[in-house]
Structure formats: structure tokens, C-alpha cells
Amino acid sequence: MHRPVAAELHIACETSTTYRVLYRQRSEPGAAVTPWYLHDTLRVFLQQFESAWKIDLILTRLEVGSRQVLDLGYVDAERVARVFRQYAHGPLPAGASDALAEVSTALDEVSC
């Protein structure tokens, strides 16, 4: 059954081959933020949700240090979970979630 949720992906470049990704469901107040990381798989990961031209734009912005927020409200929650299990590594190691919390806070401030 298709069950879209109000959700976002917050993406930031950590190194030239590693990306920090926060999956944030906004459907429930106080919903948890799930941190993940991707090594060399961001393009393939994004292909599951975005068109090719948009992926190129996202990757270019990430390369120059911009953070990206993608609206996944149109995607079934089970599909998102399946894609994360296939391509992502995580949740992040201990201590890394503090840095991600800072990224999330900064992204919230930018989007307000």
C-alpha cells in the first residue's frame, strides 16, 4: 500500500566521497531524525527519487559546499526505507550525530 509521508532528505558533503544524509519525517510532532551516510553511492541513491538533470544540479551544489534539502513527501515510506537499506550505511557512528544535529539546525534556520 502506498503510504507517502511528509519527509525530507538533508544532504551535506563530508568528504569528496562521503555524504551525510538525514532522513526526517515531519508527519508526527517530535519525529526522529535518522542519520545515514553514503560512500560513492549518492548518485545511484538519488536516482531512486529524482530525475537525471536534477541529480546533476544537486551534486554540483554539494561539490561547492551547499547543503541540499529534498522533499520526499511524494515517496512511499517503505520505498525510502528499502533504498536506504540498499545504498546507505548507518546509522552513523557514535559522535557523528552531534555534527548532523548541527547540520539539521542550520538547515532549519535557512528554511525558516
Labels describing this entry:
globular, alpha+beta, 40% helix, disordered C terminus, 4-stranded antiparallel sheet
Helical percent range?
Answer: 40-55%
Average of per-residue pLDDT values? 75
Give me the count of strands.
Answer: 4
Distance between the ends: 33 Å
Largest sheet: 4 strands, antiparallel
The unreliable regions are 92-97, 103-112
Strand order of the largest sheet: 3-2-1-4
The secondary-structure class comes to alpha+beta
Characterization of this structure:
40% of the residues lie in helices and 23% in strands. It has helices at 42-47, 52-63, 77-87, 96-111, and strands spanning 7-13, 18-25, 33-39, 68-71. It has a 4-stranded antiparallel sheet with strand order 3-2-1-4, with helices on both faces. Strand 2 (18-25) and strand 3 (33-39) form a beta hairpin. The radius of gyration is 13 Å and the shape is globular.
Quick rundown:
By secondary structure, this protein is α+β, with helices and mostly antiparallel strands.
